[in-house]
Description:
Number of strands: 0
Oligomer: single chain
Distance between the termini: 23 Å
Number of helices: 4
Amino acid sequence: MEDLKFEMLISFIRGEIGEFHLEIKKDTLIEDELGVTGDDGIELICNYSKQFNVDITDFKFDKYFYPEPGIFNALKKTISPIRINDLYNGMINGKLL
């Protein structure tokens, strides 16, 4: 059952980001390796929440995703890594932190 959930997640991620050739594993970094950032990161997590019925009420988008590029955010802050495994655990627990 766990493998099926993981495969469903990978299939969802591939469809959301339009990447069908890159190997995606549990430790794949969403921002750094898949290139999902800014508004795309917000959209991905919101769609993930709807697709898999995961509560994202307490999820801090700016902790895990850089803002959209622009002159007002020239000074980059450090973000925390978010991995595919974090999304998988959110599916299992029903909540993404």
